[in-house]
Design brief:
With 139 residues, this protein is mainly alpha-helical. Helix content is 80%, strand content 0%. Helix 1 packs across helix 4 and helix 2 runs antiparallel to helix 3. It is elongated and about 60 Å long.
Length: 139
């Protein structure tokens, strides 16, 4: 986190605002991806109608649901609140922006961690649907 904190401390406020805007855009895209993954799971899962889904498949679905209904919503609320704080900071022309910068660094770290988690979750969805991500080219 030290790298993010230094970056947030040294970057101009308008650059931090741009990053926050990009996070909101990325979160909206993640929502679309999750909807696509639900559809993919529903329409392209291996035909195992008679068998119970594996524990791993059940856990992947559970994580996808939690990510879409909790994680994305929570991150979005935090980023929106962060941006509202910036608006107040700029309207009052307060020179003390250290709290905003610190919060930005915390959000940046959180966003990156969730980005890594979501990447792994997407791989798990592909594995569930086709058996192995490299099998997608043969599907």
């Amino acid at each position: 986190m030290k790298k993010e904190l230094v970056s947030a401390q040294e970057s101009p406020i308008d650059q931090l605002h741009q990053e926050s805007s990009e996070w909101l855009s990325e979160l909206a895209f993640w929502r679309d991806e999750v909807a696509f993954f639900y559809h993919l799971i529903k329409t392209h899962s291996k035909p195992l109608a008679d068998l119970k889904p594996s524990i791993k498949d059940q856990e992947t679905k559970k994580q996808l649901l939690h990510f879409s209904t909790s994680t994305i919503d929570q991150l979005e609320m935090e980023v929106v609140a962060h941006e509202k704080f910036l608006d107040k900071l700029l309207l009052k022309a307060l020179p003390e922006d250290h709290l905003y910068r610190y919060r930005h660094a915390v959000l940046e770290k959180k966003f990156k961690e969730n980005e890594v988690f979501f990447r792994a979750l997407k791989k798990a969805v592909f594995t569930m649907v086709v058996g192995h991500p490299s099998d997608l080219s043969h599907a």
